[in-house]
Amino acid sequence: MADAVSDHAWLAAMLEFEAALAGAEAAAGLIPAEAAAAIAGACDPSRFDLEQLGRHAVASGTPVLPLVAAIRAAVPGEAEEYVHFGATSQDAVDTALMLVARRALDLLLADLEALVHACLHLVREHRLTPMAGRTLLQQAVPTSFGLKAVNWMMGADEAADGLLRFRRHRLAIQLGGAAGTLAGLGGKGLDVAAALARELDLADPGTPWHSERSRVVQLGGAVAVAAGAAGKIALDVILLSQSEVGEVAVAEAGRSSAMPHKRNPVAAIEADACVRGALAQVSILVGAQRVEHERAAGAWQAEWPAVSEAFRLTAGAVRRTRSAVEGLRVDRERMRSNLELGGGFDPAREPAEQLGEAEAMIDRALAEHRARRHP
To answer: What pTM, to 2 d.p., does this model score?
Structure first.
């Protein structure tokens, strides 16, 4: 994920936009086909000095100006005037954001799917393993560890569904030109936008979204749900691993530098740390929705690192939670003894008799899980 949202990934995505834009404009008869071919040939990320582009970006508040200058320097003279033709910096960066997000979403979805399956394994193995239900951190009535794992699974499932919906329906190009009117494309702006969307396999939103940032906020929201789903599982693992509870243990426990007897649930702890960081980044995206007129002065620039960090940290949360769940060691006897200490469980009766409709709810959740699976 760090590679997928890196500065190099953003550079490659902006170059992909510039090449596709030139191709779309050539198809619409706005620029010569030879110029479009030359521009596409020049849009090779290996030809550009990322650090130099970054230094020069400071003067304009966007990496697109130095990037366009570098592309113009790399194409034959007659093609130079057609680089970035009719577009504005935000067109390039916002479309790049969507391309970066698509690759990041695919990685995150794969790990969420693995987390769902790890939870599913626990559900099947512990559907009638009795344990204390806990409300307000106090023992309540009996539940089963399988039902707890079903809730974990459902959270990851719901998060995956939200990310998948965004990937299928909300990834879109940005093309509006200087003030969102497509005035620089000679009356063919809508045709160019449609061709650009086809070339990049993104949606054509119909109108530019330079200052209407709900798309980015929705992306942040979907990522936040994924982080939160992983964080819920990680927190439960941390609490169930406490010495006084001891109902689960992670396979790869961490040691303490001062207390060698400790076995810390490090994967779950790292996941929790990632969740905190991811949610902080998402709050930046929410705050950036309120922008000035037709172009944000600062809010837009704040989105770029926030999107990358939100993905990176959420991927860390999901992966570390997955690691904790896949290696989770469940102590059935400790669960039962803790439950009996609370006085809410009768060891002389069958667990199924004391768990209400837990097993029926598990079966229903598993059926819903099978029904909602997406390729």
So the answer is: 0.93
